[in-house]
Amino acid sequence: xxxxxxxxxxxxxxxxxxxxxxxxxxxxxxxxxxxxxxxxxxxxxxxxxxxxxxxxxxxxxxxxxxxxxxxxxxxxxxxxxxxxxxxxxxxxxxxxxxxxxxxxxxxxxxxxxxxxxxxxxxxxxx
Length: 126
Hints:
By secondary structure, the chain is α/β, with parallel strands linked by helices. Helix content is about 40%, strand content about 20%.
């Protein structure tokens, strides 16, 4: 028999966005779905440490990050054995589409609305 709390699986999403205002908007949009547990970070190197401990179900990465860009961060995250299966969404006004496609990352061009974000999440998770 299933317990009442077991009906909805929680999806842990690691968002790495260096712009605090955009990060806050992403957090607000994602909080509309009670099944999403969101961890928001502003630094790519911090994401490498945190991802190991939280083992997210999805990465949402800004392409334009300080230290390393979103593609490099994705590659470093996927080099970690227990994270190599985790899908990702790359967000930015511009990013190298060919590199994103090669890695099977879902690309989402800024500006986007909440519905586009939720659609991209659905696509990435399926």
